[in-house]
Amino acid sequence: MKNFYQNHFKIETLQYLRRVGSLTKAARRFDVHPSTLATWQRIGLEEFMKRELQNTKTLEPRKSTHELEQRIQRLEQENAVLRQAARLFFMC
């Protein structure tokens, strides 16, 4: 199965690679295959930064982790209510 990596992850990985200078060390730290990292390096950090900037301009602002956790909690509560209603409905 092919992995999909977000641009911000690629940027972070390439910045680390520039600091450390070791492809294998960076690949191990971020759990990415060295050949994948070498491909990203050929494409270039600046290109991924440009792509990330384009994505953030076209998409809505990213929601905070807190907002997403609240939404998950609300959906879990809704699911619990629906399961309970289904049990009551099918018991009758």
Could you list some keywords that capture this structure?
79% helix; Arc Repressor Mutant, subunit A; mainly alpha; Homeodomain-like_sf; 92 residues; 0% strand; Transposase
Task: Describe this protein's structure.
The chain has helices spanning 7-20, 23-30, 34-43, 45-58, 65-91. The longest helix is centred in the last third of the chain and has 27 residues, at 65-91. The chain is elongated. 9% of the residues are buried. Helix 1 crosses helix 2 (23-30). The chain is mainly alpha-helical and 92 residues long. It has 5 helices and no strands. It has 2 domains: 1-61, Arc Repressor Mutant, subunit A (Orthogonal Bundle); 64-92. The protein is 79% helix and 0% strand.
**What composes the largest sheet?**
none
Label the overall shape: elongated
CATH architecture of the largest domain: Orthogonal Bundle
State which percent range the strand residues make up: under 5%
The unreliable regions are none
What is the level 1 CATH name of the largest domain? Mainly Alpha
Organism: Deefgea chitinilytica
Protein name: Transposase
InterPro entries: Homeodomain-like_sf
In short:
InterPro entries: Homeodomain-like_sf. This protein is mainly alpha-helical.
